[in-house]
Amino acid sequence: MTLIPFFFYLCAAVLVLASLFVVLARNPLYNVLALVVVIFCLSTLFMLLEAYFVGMVLLLVYAGAVLVFFLFVVMCLNLNTPSLITAKQNRFRLWGGLAAFMFLAGLFLALKSFIAAQNLEQSSIRGTIEIIGKILFTEYLLPFELTSLLLLIAIFGIVSLAKGALYFGKEESTT
Amino acid sequence: MLPVIAWNLISLEILITLTLVSLVILDILLPKGTKNDWLGFASFTALLGLIVFWTTQQSVTGITFSGMFVSDSLSWFFKGFFLITMIFIFVMTQQFFKFLGERRNEFYLLLWLSLLGMCLIASSADFLLLFISIEILTISLYVMTAYLRSDKLSIEAGMKYLILGALSSGFFLYGISFLYGITHSTRFAAIQMFTATHSISPLMLFAMVLIFAAVGFKIVAVPFHMWVPDVYQGAPTPVTALLSVGSKAAGFIILIRLFFGIFGPWHAEWSILLAVLSAITMCYGNLVAMFQTNIKRLLGYSSISHAGYLLMGAAAGSMIGASAMNFYLLGYLFTNLAAFLVIILFSIAVKSDDIADYAGLARRSGILAGTLLIALISLAGLPPLAGFFGKFALLMAIIESGFIWLALIAGINIVISLYYYLMIVKKIYVDTPNSTSLIAVSLPMRLILILSMLAIIGIGICQGPFLDAAIASVKGMYLLHF
Fold this sequence. Notes:
The structure holds two protein chains of two kinds.
Chain A: H1 3-24, H2 28-48, H3 52-77, H4 82-86, H5 90-112, H6 129-137, H7 141-162
Helix pairs in contact in A: 1-2, 2-3
Chain B: H1 11-29, H2 38-55, E1 62-64, E2 69-71, H3 73-96, H4 103-123, H5 127-145, H6 152-183, H7 188-197, H8 202-219, H9 228-234, H10 237-262, H11 267-289, H12 295-316, H13 319-350, H14 361-364, H15 366-380, H16 386-400, H17 404-429, H18 443-461, H19 464-475
Helix pairs in contact in B: 1-2, 1-4, 2-3, 3-4, 3-10, 3-13, 3-19, 4-5, 5-6, 5-10, 6-8, 6-9, 8-10, 9-10, 9-12, 10-12, 10-13, 11-12, 11-17, 12-13, 12-16, 13-15, 13-16, 13-18, 13-19, 15-17, 15-18, 16-18
């Protein structure tokens, strides 16, 4: 049991560092690879919470499928445009930094006041497929079914935005 | 053990989904390349049928889906609101997208999905369901915003809306996770039980601010308004109209459910926050609106300032405040949609959204000029139109709650807004036109313009039944605190 906090802090630290790397690295390839590390750490955190299924799905779907696609796209496009890197963004840095600082300060003040729930019982629910399936199809039936509509929107969106040839200025000028 | 589900409560949403599915099938079965707009016609007829069905649903109230889905007077009121909005949006789409050909059909389907999202938002009593409903609405709006993919402005608008929308969704989820951590539930009923028995903690305040950030994005309150001008200008005009009325009203229904329901017991803490935001929002919107040259951009800033006026009702934190908000939104629906309908008909004929091109519109088309006149002076709040009585009710609510300073700021803002609304009116009626060619308006369009004019004047003159409906909608609200 005493190892759990150790693993938690380890993963959390790597998670924060990798996330910073996702944002700060200049080469898109490194961004994606750092994101893979982020997903691994997140998945471990879920496992530590005994949400095994969510942890596994995260690993399989994101690290296994989505990010591999990302890597392919990045490599195909060969996105090493120097114009993106040298563009002056000092104004954005200033305001962004200020906003981030205020947000973190607020978060810090808020968390300082947080009193952890007293003698929280060890939850008897384990995040196995069986239990998640039961909950999804009883208590969370409506939100679960509605996510299928979200996928439908994604299909409509992609099909309608990609359908047919694209002529700039001609095809859809208001005539 | 399976939960007991009261299907009759969710019948409207089921009917909308069924319509959507049958339209998809219709789209596949119909021969391609037909000139006739079958899908638009079928959508319009289905909407009329749904409105008839909606009128029979007033007394169907209750909660189901293990406390997630609620059907109460508030959701009934807003579902009607969204259905009427959609009638206008479908008419606009039929006019605006004539040149899109086959790609128009998917647009209708996306409109139906956004309608479903809005209706579900109106009925959500659980943060998880609320989040998914918001995403159904917002993601279909992302696609529709970028729909004119050969138009640079439209793509830019879609991109901006997508990135800022994703950011606001992130805030919302982060806020919910804090709420869940503190109260151990996402159900509104359980959270209200917590807020009623505990005083506010800094962590709760933080969660509340995060959630408000997401709602503020929907209702376009400053400082979450960054996306408005570019998206309003770049998006296809029917989408702009939907954003300014439907999406905004969806934001306000969340605001009412959260701040008059689950956060109600902490009214003393948040009312000052909302009052300050309301003042900043209306000042910003009105001051920047004065310098606009594009009419869609101008209505974007005017939409920000109206969000400011509406926030007054929320800051009042009373039954009257919430009812005034609902009444104001009802007037705003007809007013804003009439204005956008004129903009669409004008842009189809003249191919321009510049205010300069509106010079002398009265001599080119009497009906367009007349409708725009009525809509603009109702937005400005002159009697005896819908906008006047709405502002009056909001000011009354805010004064009763003791925010005299806010009422004064609102008064000054209404005077400022008169300036830019009346500048357009002057352009339409006094200035000499750039071209003397007449703008033809077809008979069905004339009919709809006249009907919306009558609605604006009707709500302004006999406010009684509409105000009663607004009050009743708040009175029967699930988990109402006040």
